[in-house]
Amino acid sequence: MEVDEIRKVAKARPFKAFEIRVENGEKYLIPHPENVFITNQIIVTVDEQGESILIAPEAVSAIRLVAEARKINA
Fold first, then answer.
1. What is the pLDDT of residue 73?
2. Residue 74 binned pLDDT confidence (cut-offs 50, 70, 90)
3. pTM of the prediction?
4. Would you tell me how many other CB atoms lie within 10 Å of the CB of residue 43?
5. For the segment 12-32, what is each residue's pLDDT rounded down to a tens digit?
6. CATH number of the domain that residue 34 is part of
7. Which domain holds residue 10?
8. Would you call 19 helix, strand, or coil by DSSP?
9. Helix (H), strand (E) at residue 48
10. Is the peptide bond prior to 57 cis by the omega test (within 30 degrees of 0)?
């Protein structure tokens, strides 16, 4: 996925929580804009235990707003 697409969601105002899904099926919730750091080479966030998660932008398969993700997973 293009880094600019990810940045656009992360910088949206008002901010809406979103989920990053990666190719292996894992997903990471971004509940607040301060919970994600994005560069051209890497996306950094933290999991529920506070552990750092490093994601290569090319591994991102989808980004969904939390409300949309819940509808799809329901």
1. 47
2. very low
3. 0.84
4. 24
5. 999 999 999 999 999 999 999
6. 2.30.30.100
7. 3-73
8. strand
9. none
10. no
